[in-house]
Amino acid sequence: MKENIKYANKKENKFVYWAPRILSIIFILFLALFSLDVFGNNYGFWGTVTGLLIHNIPSFVLLIILLISWKHEIVGAIAFILAGLIYCGINIVDLLTANPIEWYRLSWCLTIAGPAFLIGILFLMGWLKKKK
CA 41 to CA 56: how far, in whole Å? Predict the structure, then answer.
């Protein structure tokens, strides 16, 4: 019976360790996909390179945060939750200033901020587990 508990705890620890890291990589790649719309605008070589760099700033920032969070999980917890809150805040302010109000944009918060919140919570769980 004790062996089953140890195995379950070990399996749970692996999940809490790897889940936010793998999900972060997938999430960053998902965000990077949005920068590909630059290729359809005929900006020329340097314009396209500049557009790609500008569009990928959030991905680069989250990648740096992920690298730091790999060892210091509390950084990932705070940063990903904060990133989700900032994205929702910007979206809501933009929504309220739009004329006419485009309510479908609230679903963007779920699509972008939802995974960020989940990743942040998983990093928080890992940090709390490590702290014990």
Answer: 17
